[in-house]
Amino acid sequence: MMPPTDVKDRHVANRQGAVFALADMVLVVTSMGVIKQAGATFPAIQLVFFRAIVGLLLIAPLIWRYRSDVFNSRQVKGHLGRVLCSTLALSCNYAATAALPLTLVTVIGFTRPFVILALAALMLGERILRRHWISTVICFVSVLFIVKPGSMSWDWGLLAALGMVLFGSLSVIQTRRLTGEHAVVLMVFYTIGLAILTAIPAAFVWVPPGLDDLPAFLIIGVLAQVGQFCFLRSHQLAEASILAPLSYVVIVFSSIADYLYFGIVPTLSLVVGSLAIISAAVIGTQVGRSPR
Q1: What is the 3-state secondary structure (H, E, C) of 80-135?
Q2: φ, ψ of residue 291 in degrees (nearest 5)
Q3: Which domain holds residue 243?
Q4: Is residue 291 part of a domain?
Q5: Which residues of the chain have pLDDT under 70?
Q6: How many structural domains does the chain have?
Q7: Measured between alpha carbons, how far is 40 from 261 in angstroms, rounded to an integer?
Q8: Measured distance CA(261)–CA(241) in Å, rounded
């Protein structure tokens, strides 16, 4: 899809992209709420497995249509590395969502761009501007202020959230190495690999679901897949400068969901730390642009 060149068309595309981005946020937060409720009964790895199975059913036509591109890929090792990191990241995400307030998981997730920044410098040799590093430090200190490592136990929920950030960042780095691959091929490898890698671990901790549990699994899978479509569509339509600041609105949706569904009121440290992280993230997305 070619980006719009006319100014009026670009404004329309930006508005449409913003709508898709907001839809993605609502879908993600809604799915997190369902995951949090289901996570009280089912292990995270089992939820990831069901999410993958539902995703496979939804993209089955794409798998058939792009089967030649999938089977003829010359970057299978790269796909395997990406799928492994993505599987670990998603499993950690589901575990953290089940154990922690949605807002806290969202805030910790805001640190991922800065971890990607550091990994890009170390693993890809990219040159990072000084102000980007300053933003990274601000973000890291803000997270420490929120979680207060000296005053709370580092339970598995927090460790899972940190694992979510680390493995998610590694997945992004691996994705950037997969140059020339069609986006659909990336999605097909991801969904198939996710189902395969989670099948055996899920079997070891399997909790037999009842018929009344199946709607939750279906909702998680459908929301995740539709959310992925909205995310990709938003980036096809809108400019990065529009989407970057807008992405931090998700913390508002997370806070509302925490309050409405679980009665969790954001703490002062969470609000202050979140504002600092959002400010650092906005700085990080706006600096370093070359003049035109």
Answers
A1: HHHHHHHHHHHHHHHHHHHHCCHHHHHHHHCCHHHHHHHHHHHHCCCCCCHHHHHH
A2: -70, 150
A3: 15-286
A4: no
A5: 1-8, 128, 132, 147-154, 179, 239-248, 281-292
A6: 1
A7: 14
A8: 33
